[in-house]
Amino acid sequence: MIDQDRTPHGRLSDFQSVRALSEQICEPLAVEDYGLQARVETSPLKWHLAHTTWFFETFVLKPFMPGYTPFHPGYEQLFNSYYNSLGNPYPRGQRHLLSRPTVAEVYDYRHTIDRQVLDLLDSSHCPPEALARIELGLHHEQQHQELMLTDLKYNLAQNPLWPCYREARHTPSETSGLRFLSQPGGVLWIGHDPAQGFAFDNEGPRHQVLVQPFALASRLITNGEYLEFIQDGGYSRPELWLADGWNQSLSQNWQHPLYWQRQGAQWLEFTLHGLQPLSPELPVTHISYYEADAFARWCGARLCTEFEWESVASQTAISRQGLDFAWLHPTAATAPATLHPLQLFGTTWQWTQSAYLPYPGYRATSGALGEYNGKFMCNQQVLRGSSCATPPGHSRASYRNFFYPHDRWQFTGIRLARDL
Amino acid sequence: MIDQDRTPHGRLSDFQSVRALSEQICEPLAVEDYGLQARVETSPLKWHLAHTTWFFETFVLKPFMPGYTPFHPGYEQLFNSYYNSLGNPYPRGQRHLLSRPTVAEVYDYRHTIDRQVLDLLDSSHCPPEALARIELGLHHEQQHQELMLTDLKYNLAQNPLWPCYREARHTPSETSGLRFLSQPGGVLWIGHDPAQGFAFDNEGPRHQVLVQPFALASRLITNGEYLEFIQDGGYSRPELWLADGWNQSLSQNWQHPLYWQRQGAQWLEFTLHGLQPLSPELPVTHISYYEADAFARWCGARLCTEFEWESVASQTAISRQGLDFAWLHPTAATAPATLHPLQLFGTTWQWTQSAYLPYPGYRATSGALGEYNGKFMCNQQVLRGSSCATPPGHSRASYRNFFYPHDRWQFTGIRLARDL
Amino acid sequence: MIDQDRTPHGRLSDFQSVRALSEQICEPLAVEDYGLQARVETSPLKWHLAHTTWFFETFVLKPFMPGYTPFHPGYEQLFNSYYNSLGNPYPRGQRHLLSRPTVAEVYDYRHTIDRQVLDLLDSSHCPPEALARIELGLHHEQQHQELMLTDLKYNLAQNPLWPCYREARHTPSETSGLRFLSQPGGVLWIGHDPAQGFAFDNEGPRHQVLVQPFALASRLITNGEYLEFIQDGGYSRPELWLADGWNQSLSQNWQHPLYWQRQGAQWLEFTLHGLQPLSPELPVTHISYYEADAFARWCGARLCTEFEWESVASQTAISRQGLDFAWLHPTAATAPATLHPLQLFGTTWQWTQSAYLPYPGYRATSGALGEYNGKFMCNQQVLRGSSCATPPGHSRASYRNFFYPHDRWQFTGIRLARDL
Amino acid sequence: MIDQDRTPHGRLSDFQSVRALSEQICEPLAVEDYGLQARVETSPLKWHLAHTTWFFETFVLKPFMPGYTPFHPGYEQLFNSYYNSLGNPYPRGQRHLLSRPTVAEVYDYRHTIDRQVLDLLDSSHCPPEALARIELGLHHEQQHQELMLTDLKYNLAQNPLWPCYREARHTPSETSGLRFLSQPGGVLWIGHDPAQGFAFDNEGPRHQVLVQPFALASRLITNGEYLEFIQDGGYSRPELWLADGWNQSLSQNWQHPLYWQRQGAQWLEFTLHGLQPLSPELPVTHISYYEADAFARWCGARLCTEFEWESVASQTAISRQGLDFAWLHPTAATAPATLHPLQLFGTTWQWTQSAYLPYPGYRATSGALGEYNGKFMCNQQVLRGSSCATPPGHSRASYRNFFYPHDRWQFTGIRLARDL
């Protein structure tokens, strides 16, 4: 977990723990697993390991380490994700074609960069801008840690042998009932308060928003509830769907969430723990915005907005951290319903009906780091909360995740809302 | 212009004038021109003529005309645009393959339906719901009238003979200077007031929005100003672009607005009046949201939000109606700058940085007509105002037009804004 | 029919009759029908009318008519089909976008060129090379006449109103039995004998080929016989298919010949005379090479080679001319079987298992006319004979037609053969 | 090299050496290299190792080993290449997604199957059909050995680090002059003589073909000669190209052979020994049929037919075996010209102008093994000879290799011919 101790010393300890977690994620992998890329979006884990290292090399060591010599002249291009101002990145969809550098060479790259960043942190003259970029680099790596798990899951799922990432067992408890919790709305402060530690630039500027009274669901939608939607013909009734969603669903022949499959009368779900019987108590996950929206319409509700969500979450403690190797999958909301909604964090990301747009007054920073967030503010939907694959310490009420409405490979779920 | 006289008698006169305008638009056409469809989005004019007629047949005559016999059993499918609840529409991209019914048969269809709608309006027992649907049908037809002109323009532009839709000449006057007009913002009412006549359902419910202080450009951006962006390398500097826009621009090899072309040292622009020299005084048009956004970033401004725009427009008289056969192209803003922005209406649609989303409390109506607007509320951007191709009477401050950010074939333009 | 009288006078009469037939083909069309193009291969009939005229203008009038002024400066590009040495042809798949020139303007183009070609023919100084090119132009136009009918058929078939090109009725007689006629083979002369009148360059040089003894089917395969193949699972048994054919069949979901459709228990076939009940007595047509080959394998036979076919056809009179407006569809082989196979000409083209390759010693002529045939000698299969849409006088034993193995929109059929 | 000793004992020794060579090919690989697949055609080497094993398991052990238990129930599908009669093969283009089984598990699979095949061979009761299938399986594996090298080359070439498969140096000697050697033609025997040992079914039946007199080039075309074609505008002159080739060349922006690249004024060539300066003395390779054909037309010659080639090769000793780890690239023809052409074998495959079609009387065997060759006899061109990547003992005069005319990733080259 990233500490709020923003001294070089605090950074040093954060750096070590965050960097270590990326390697822990890879522990169960065979060398062969590191290279998989089934779609343009699901990068090889080897590439993630290298790219997060490249980030520190490019944005910290090159500008701030006196006399720094690049580790390898080819890596600048190979492990650049999308920073056009740094040159032409290697084509995203072909990352699986890079058998070299090997896994061992990438670990060597990591460890070499690590040592130098630690040297810089340990020195008496680490400039504040370098410290700030190291902090950004750690949050950046945490984002990639979640992608490592979701990309790996997608890539393994193409193999009919159904490889199991880690063995695990989980007995879901019974889910608590679904209630709608009334909220007064009003003119509310939204966005990150800079006094409260790190946030990405897209979480600000903090500003006021007028929110109508509304009610928010006390928990996420379960597999069992989603099955009712399917059994009621949800995937064959265009009147429930957004037009783009309906076309997408037809063209991809969607009939159920991404990792579900039917074997005779039984539903199974592919997980990071292999094929598992589908539990009706667990939250539904790996659905697109289109499916979430159609489900909401089917049951006479709607998805919440990101402002509604944040206004509630900012008053709720983060009771559940995400990533736990013992069970890399959402768990049931078992607590009795209270005034506070459950599963805001650490379970599944929650599609909102808010498009991903800049907040009033938002400006991207100049230079290559200005490409981090701002240039994606079009065509995507905001997701709020965090998931069972989000690293500890990476959840906060103002966090704005974003994906295309057709994306399904993240741990996404459904949080309903209603007008009052 | 559609009257505000909402009696059967007022409707009768509106019906005649709106239906007549569609045919006036087609007057200069050769029979061969009616069938063109160069892209899935740019339907043949014959299809528009039939589909707007189908709308009255399907939603007025079939339910409200006792003993009504359909004009032709095949037309229900052929001329259904996207109403899935009415059956499987004929594939949108193949409308150009329908040489039958012929143009003459489609006019016969129009006139036959016209007579029966007029009979219904003229009768003493036209039910209020039928009246409401006729009103909707007329506004629907006005939307198609604008599409007829923009689709035709796109389709003719594929022909290297550069066919001229109507002969015209226009001498642009000098454009007034660009200023930014400060606005106080605050908690403002947004959306259509039902007491104020017809509006589409997506313009409501009327509700309050908190808007920060801002400044709005006094007029639209001109070709001359856009040329400076081009000459400054605007199309080759990824840092100015949204990521999706940059990819789109590369894949389509965009180098200038849709209808511009270069002949030696001279820029020309294809218009409904044939190829014309590009005038630097006229508003730039036929640009995507991506281009508008990149231009704004290039000059240190931003696009306005739909709420900012409406808050200003609702206090400004609609001084300029759109569609005028004498010059089917934007004209310059020649008036001296005042407190009120120029060119809000009747010139080009204005991309806003607002995604097309439902207003709080919005619900689509039930039945097929519920597919009119709501199902498109994803992936598109709101455009405000109206254009030189918008029929008279079809402009209003609450109007929400919407297109995909890559769309360029509408008369779209750039209205800048700034934070204060 | 093109006369063998190769004097200017004979050419004059040929020219008039061939040019007239193209217009007779268009007589039943509405103006709207002239512009249809459902696939890149199926050009608008207006384009055919103009291109065949362009051929005479480009290859006869421009080089041989002193002081000739082109009819229109834009037509050189618009109506060039594929002659790269004459400049960049207008994109083939976009011919349907050329509403201008109009149908009337294209007829004017035709008649203006006609008058000048006739003047040239009538003059005392028409050079022999001009005469030869006029002869080529007439055979070229005959090829397009067949394409006009097959393209039109394909394009009309996209319309669910099933437009009827010409009204007609036909009562098929009973088909004679299928026999295999033994042939001795040997070293045989193949290819056109230049002393025997006109032929395309790809029919020569005449040369010897060694052919093994074989047996040739006495007639074409019927719809009834093809139905047995379907009912025996022919479209779902990969072992019957070439690998490329099987993939094509899966990707296009082929279940029957191109224009067949099922209505309840009944099979119908779309024809140039509208939808007709499928007659089991008529030859099967509109099948790909893949389907023909799979059918042959299914019944333990094979398709013939082009040399086998020609060796038999060159000894058989052409008893049946093709194109007859009264019935633009194959007819049954009703004659009792004799020593000579039936339906070699005027019924359907017959896929051979010969790839379209140059004969030994073949060289394309230099200049643009060298692009006529030679550059297509790859990836295509030879078809022999002629069809019900082939103009009178255009059939001969040495004729080599060629299409891609997946093409189905020509009048193609199945002639079986067997090894002895 | 596969022995002609067709006893079980001879087979046993062949089996061991052929199986060993596949593993020797993989010796220099990192585990990561085994999984690459840059195009649907270029399978991962791990897959080749498993598929060639699957062949013995499926066609030898399952039918002929009493009480045989499959190694793994999932492998039947995973490692089936294209045998539809054995069930649905795993999608060809997704083989790179199979990180499991791992490389070690695949070697385990190989060795387990090897032991059992050796047991069968060693036993006193190995049936003749099993022996014949083992022989087929060995020739099958040899074909895959060549593919392993060409697939690997293609896959490594996607990496801008230009990985070197094996270090090597080679100093090309000067090439001998190009001459055309006259051949009398006549009625010649073509195809494999069954008395002469193993051949694939597509090399027979042996039959007579009439061949016109011709002249065959004394050696292959060199890089230097091909450079002249490039410098003479060969890639921008459509009159030199087949129509399909020209379109392919434009759409892929071909400007030179597959692995050539330009660095400033210097040409380089990617090889299995890394990037090398392009030597003008070496044979040009990795060109499509379209390029070979255009080159031939450019220099006033043509490609040979497969019958011309075989008639000469059947009278020429195979002086050069292929695959040699010391230099996995074509070498120059240095010998002085004689009556016999050089480089018929072991250098590059030679595109012929013959389409890949069945010989007269050819019938595929029944059952799954009937899918081995026959179903590919469409759309491909025959290549003759063998290449620098062909395993020793796999070359013969009757061998018919076949690829699509656009394929470039094999070691393909140009053998010219001329009419006499």
Structure characterization notes:
The structure is a homotetramer of 420-residue chains. In chain A, a hairpin with a 2-residue loop joins strand 5 and strand 6 (266-271). In chain A, the strands form 4 sheets. Chain A has a 4-stranded antiparallel sheet with strand order 1-4-13-8. Chain A has a 4-stranded mixed sheet with strand order 11-10-9-12. Chain A has a 3-stranded antiparallel sheet with strand order 5-6-7, with no helix packed on it. Chain A folds into 2 domains: 8-156, Four Helix Bundle (Hemerythrin (Met), subunit A) (Up-down Bundle); 180-419, paralog of FGE (formylglycine-generating enzyme), CATH 3.90.1580. The model of chain A has no long low-confidence stretch (mean pLDDT 95). Helix content of chain A is 31%, strand content 13%. In chain A, helix 1 (8-26) packs parallel to helix 5, helix 2 (45-64) packs parallel to helix 4 (103-122) and helix 2 (45-64) runs antiparallel to helix 5 (128-156). Chain A has 420 residues and is α+β, with helices and mostly antiparallel strands. Chain A has helices at residues 8-26, 45-64, 75-78, 103-122, 128-156, 223-231, 243-252, 289-298, 306-313, and strands spanning 180-183, 186-190, 207-211, 214-217, 260-263, 266-271, 274-277, 302-303, 349-355, 381-384, 401-403, 412-413, 416-419. Chains in contact: A-B, A-D, B-C, C-D. Chains A and B meet through strand 3, helix 7, helix 8 and strand 9 of A and strand 3, helix 7, helix 8 and strand 9 of B.
